[in-house]
Amino acid sequence: MDLKKIIFFWAFLASSVAVSAQPLVIDAGISAVICPGVTYNIGGAPTATGGSAPYTYTWTPNTAINNNTVSNPVVNPAVPTWYYLNVTDAAGNSALDSVLVNLDPIYALNAGPDTSVCIGDSIELGGIANTSIGGITYSWAPATDLNNTAAPRPVFSGTVTTTYTLIVTSTNSIPNCPSKQYVVTVTVNPLPTVVATGATTIQEGESTPLSASGASQYFWIPPNGLSNTTEPLTNAEPTQTTFYIVYGIDANGCQDWDSLTVTVIPNNEIVLYNTFSPNNDGINDNFQIGNIQKYPDCRLEVFTRTGQQVYAKTGYDNSWDGTNYGDKLPETTYYYTLDLGNDSPVLYGHVTIVR
Q1: Is residue 99 packed enough to be buried (19+ CB in 10 Å), middle (13-18) or exposed (0-12)?
Q2: pLDDT band at residue 264, thresholds of 50, 70 and 90?
Q3: Domains of the chain, with CATH numbers?
Q4: Is the distance from CB of 228 to CB of 211 less than 8 angstroms?
Q5: CA angle 295-300-304, nearest 5°?
């Protein structure tokens, strides 16, 4: 064999080995700050060298990127995003790199969602990311009912529905983003008109219905003597004169209140009622005997028309709910004896269950 050819062959082989021995080096590109809506090319120049070509590129995440399998894709992220690059060469070698595509802070700032407020209340406007950071200015218009038109989150305290425009400006020279404009409407809802009605004077031991109107949810205070504190209708049986307040909340969350005083005239006589409705609505669910608490040694016994005893309790405390050992009794009239335990004559009467 020709000596020159042999020398050339070995020289070529040595150079090939030297080339293939170069490590795989990759470059995901230069991290940058961009404006919202602006595109940016990632990857190096070149993105991969060394190793054994050709190269396989995989960019993750595969979001806001035009092609995640090319060397220099175009990205347009809506939020700051790290892009990770995995490159594999023909020999199966791989390398990793990453690049951050950040956004000017203006991207996260806005006027917030449309909102509502009850008349007389205040509310803070602006998106939750709005803060007083360098390089950002805020301008709200109109100035009506706002405490500060240059604040990132001004406070609205108005009486009429108003639409506001917010202009957010970035004063950063890089990347020199254009201003952004947003609109938000504050709806002002009127307060409900809550009205409380009911008898204002009762004998001790008597009960009186109290009612409220004008709202969708109600809360009565104090609970003393009330059969229910969260319904528009409640029975009041206070043992002393009581000032009641009822708060009402409407569908918009707005609140009003009204009040009344139930004056109680002292009285030791037993007050007997002849119906109750044990249906768990919080109103007249138990057999009530007015002033029974003044006779701790009393005994109540209840019978059917045929004389079968269905209830008995010494020291009755208005707790009978129309059951017999946990079983609901039928709707009908029952008969009772009431011994007050003070040597007075036994009382007789009847009571009807109405469910």
Answers
A1: buried
A2: very high
A3: 24-103 (2.60.40.10), 107-189 (2.60.40.10), 191-267 (2.60.40.10), 270-355 (2.60.40)
A4: no
A5: 160
Round to whole Å and give the CA distance between 181 and 179: 7
**pLDDT for 134:** 82
> Which pair of structure tokens corresponds to residue 106?
């203006």
Compute the distance between CA of residue 230 and CA of residue 223 in angstroms, rounded to an integer.
Answer: 10
Nearest to 306 by CA among 288, 332, 326: 332
Question: Which phi-psi region, left, alpha or beta, contains residue 194 (left: φ > 0; alpha: ψ -120 to 50)?
Answer: beta
Summary mean pLDDT of the chain: 93
Average pLDDT over residues 241-245: 97
Query: How many residues comprise the chain?
Result: 355
Q: Which residues pair with 65 in a beta bridge?
A: 75
Tell me the pTM.
0.69
178/150 Cα distance (integer angstroms): 18
Residues 290 and 207 sit within 8 Å (Cβ to Cβ): yes
CA gap 38, 54 in Å, rounded: 31
Between CA 242 and CA 236 the distance in angstroms is 10
**With pLDDT > 90 as the criterion, what percentage of the chain qualifies?**
89
Strand partners, 335: 303, 350
The predicted model gives 323-344 an average pLDDT of: 96
Structure confidence by residue, pLDDT tens digits, 3-24: 454 444 444 444 444 444 599 9
Whole-angstrom distance, CA of residue 231 vs CA of residue 55: 73
Any idea which residue has 């059917």 for tokens?
A: 304
Amino acid (one-letter) located at 52: S
User: Which residue do the tokens 């004169």 mark?
Assistant: 241
Q: Please state the rounded mean pLDDT for residues 166-179.
A: 91
- CA-CA-CA-CA torsion for 210, 216, 220, 226, nearest 10 degrees? 50
- Percent pLDDT > 70 in the chain is 94
What's the start-to-end Cα distance of the chain, in Å? 118
The residues with which 337 forms a beta bridge, in sequence order, are: 301, 348
Give yes or no for a contact between 64 and 80, defined as CB atoms under 8 angstroms apart: no
Q: How confident is the model at residue 2 (pLDDT cuts 50, 70, 90)?
A: low
Amino acid at 186: V
